[in-house]
TrEMBL record, chain A:
Belongs to the binding-protein-dependent transport system permease family. CysTW subfamily. The keyword Zinc does not apply. PANTHER family: ABC TRANSPORTER PERMEASE PROTEIN, INNER MEMBRANE ABC TRANSPORTER PERMEASE PROTEIN YDCU-RELATED-RELATED. This is ABC transporter permease.
Length: 269, 344
């Protein structure tokens, strides 16, 4: 056996046991439970409810990804290129939420956004609104909660890309008379495109499997795929259908990733 | 060089906190000149170029451009072309787009830009590479793109910050030739930072030598080599023998000699090794010395000698002469023509 293969074999073994085998088990379940055949897949792909949840998941996750990466870009800009004090503050704003559990943060947003939450109370006390604005139990709350959770994950690949930008290239563009806006959009942003793409992929993949945040902030009104799979396992329960759903999700994410990475290759080239 | 001073620097200084990177540098640069800023690292030569380009502000002094005070002008207003160390090309743009960038900033017409880019590509010999990204090019080719981009908008002055430091020796020679040709053809003023003395001697019309943030000397290459104004310049450019002059009798190490200097005002005399040879019977100057070592170099041998006062000397002995190469330990006399030695 080649030495490299030998040296990484513990990792391969671990991944095989903890990931590949269970996944094969799910595959098997999806084709055999309750009876052998493609019935489970047929049910998943023909059920309008399931299809609408899959569509909503992809749509919401794309929105969340765009929101997260855009916010993260501005935050990273402050973190990497701001004055020392701005850097410190930004760093705290990135790291502190990063260390707080996803559950606490979802509850935090509930406290903030619910009908009798901080924001509504404050608006009412200020006399700006008469009755509470519905800000939870809908897609808005899900997007806010998920984006907030995912921003730090987008910050790290972006920070790497921004730190790798050669300062002299920006100086050169400036010296040639380019305005700050032109330097930013035509030089800095393209030079960090690889980081944007990396952040996009990371956040998107992460968001697809989200369970806690959408379940709490969506309040059952905007169910995402992970929550639906949970329902099929624990409430209905029909494990074969849940398994088929997982496989479909897996293939969908894989396909989207493949397309994005092909595009990414073109950008990076 | 009194005519048409295009750029004038008056007592330029730059401080970073308490550290003086540049002190009281005054010089003038004429239209069409090729001026090299030469010095060891940390000598202030790059700092001076950065200030000249307007990429950083001087803490004292004044810059004039064609008689106008440009001290407070930012880089874009000065409009000098700049070739950065490491080239600073736009990695996401092709060769043609890199060269077109400053032209687009100037809002020239599409047709004019295309014409100019084609012209620049041909001028620097990059035809056929227009659509490649910088990373697909060799170091020499990237260098050409940087030159073409800096020259595309016909700047009156081109600044170059150690442009050849990343290139290997052969390529460096080739690029030096091309730079000379460009300078000759364009008539643009070139200001060139280097730490390579041979490069500076070969390329420049004048050389400004920097050390410890101060301008040591500015003159033509032959003048700074043959008549260095101080010990630093003398030692920095090429090899040199520097000997202490006796205060009492205007001689060296106890031997009275006919030197072109007055020991009351100067303490040292300097002679380039290529001007020194082993003395024959008829030579006026005869300085006793002992051979310490010799190195055979083919056409010549390098002899290391020591005077009676213990100072080291070096000379090149011509191996083609009938005189045998002296062995280490031999006591002999060395000589030089009086006009080839100078006071320091």
């Amino acid at each position: 056996m080649r030495p490299t293969l030998f040296l990484i074999s513990p990792l391969l073994l671990f991944l095989g046991c903890s990931y590949l085998l269970p996944f094969l088990g799910i595959m098997q379940l999806s084709f055999t439970d309750p009876s052998p055949g493609l019935a489970q897949y047929q049910q998943v792909l023909s059920d309008p409810l399931t299809l609408s949840v899959i569509w909503r998941t992809v749509r919401l996750c794309l929105i969340v990804t765009v929101v997260s990466v855009s916010c993260a870009y501005v935050i990273t800009l402050l973190w990497v290129r701001g004055r020392p004090m701005v850097r410190l503050l930004t760093e705290l704003c990135i790291m502190i939420p990063f260390w707080i559990s996803v559950l606490s943060r979802a509850f935090g947003w509930l406290a903030m956004l619910s009908n009798r939450g901080l924001l509504n109370t404050w608006l009412k006390d200020m006399g700006l609104i008469d009755s509470a604005i519905q800000m939870t139990r809908n897609e808005f709350a899900v997007v806010v909660g998920m984006s907030h959770y995912l921003i730090p994950f987008a910050v790290f690949p972006l920070a790497t890309a921004m730190r790798n930008v050669d300062e002299r290239v920006l100086t050169a563009a400036d010296g040639m008379g380019a305005s700050r806006l032109r330097v930013f959009w035509q030089v800095f942003v393209p030079m960090t495109a690889s980081g944007v793409m990396g952040a996009f992929l990371l956040v998107f993949v992460f968001s697809i499997g989200f369970y806690v945040t959408p379940a709490l902030l969506g309040g059952g009104q905007s169910v995402l795929i992970a929550e639906l799979i949970y329902l099929w396992i624990f409430q209905i329960p029909q494990w074969g259908v849940a398994a088929a759903m997982s496989v479909v999700l897996m293939i969908a994410v894989g396909g989207i990733l493949y397309l994005l990475m092909r595009r990414y290759g073109e950008i990076a080239q | 060089m009194v005519d048409a001073a295009q750029i004038e620097a008056r007592s330029i200084g730059k401080k970073y906190g308490n550290f003086s990177a540049l002190r009281d540098v005054s010089l003038t640069i004429s239209q069409g000149e090729f001026l090299s800023l030469l010095g060891p690292s940390g000598s202030g030569k790059t700092t001076f170029l950065t200030l000249l380009g307007g990429y950083d502000a001087s803490t004292s002094g004044q810059f004039l451009f064609e008689g106008q005070d440009m001290t407070k002008w930012p880089a874009k207003q000065r409009g000098f072309g700049m070739v950065f160390q490491g080239f600073a090309l736009f990695p996401h743009l092709t060769v043609a787009e890199n060269i077109a960038f400053p032209l687009k900033v100037q809002k020239r017409s599409k047709a004019a830009i295309a014409d100019r880019v084609a012209q620049m590509v041909t001028m620097v010999g990059l035809s056929g590479h227009e659509d490649k990204k910088p990373r697909a090019l060799s170091g020499g080719q990237q260098q050409r793109v940087a030159l073409a981009r800096a020259l595309a908008y016909e700047p009156k002055v081109l600044l170059l910050d150690e442009p050849f430091s990343a290139l290997d020796k052969n390529l460096r020679g080739q690029m030096q030739e091309e730079l000379r040709r460009l300078h000759r053809d364009l008539g643009t003023t070139f200001v060139f930072v280097t730490h390579d003395q041979e490069e500076a001697l070969a390329l420049s019309t004048r050389i400004a030598i920097f050390n410890h943030g101060e301008l040591q000397q500015i003159d033509t290459p032959d003048a700074v080599y043959e008549r260095p104004s101080n010990r630093f310049t003398a030692e920095f450019l090429g090899d040199i023998n520097i000997l202490s002059v006796d205060e009492s009798d205007n001689g060296i190490a106890g031997t009275p000699l006919d030197l072109p200097i007055n020991a009351a005002s100067f303490r040292h005399v300097a002679i380039r090794p290529e001007h020194m040879r082993l003395a024959g019977a008829g030579d006026a100057i005869q300085l006793p010395a002992t051979v310490r070592d010799r190195v055979y170099l083919g056409a010549t041998s390098r002899l290391l000698l020591e005077t009676q006062a213990g100072e080291e000397l070096m000379l090149y002995h011509d191996n083609r002469t009938s005189l045998p190469v002296p062995d280490p330990g031999t006591q002999l006399h060395v000589t030089w023509a009086k006009q080839d030695s100078f006071a320091l």
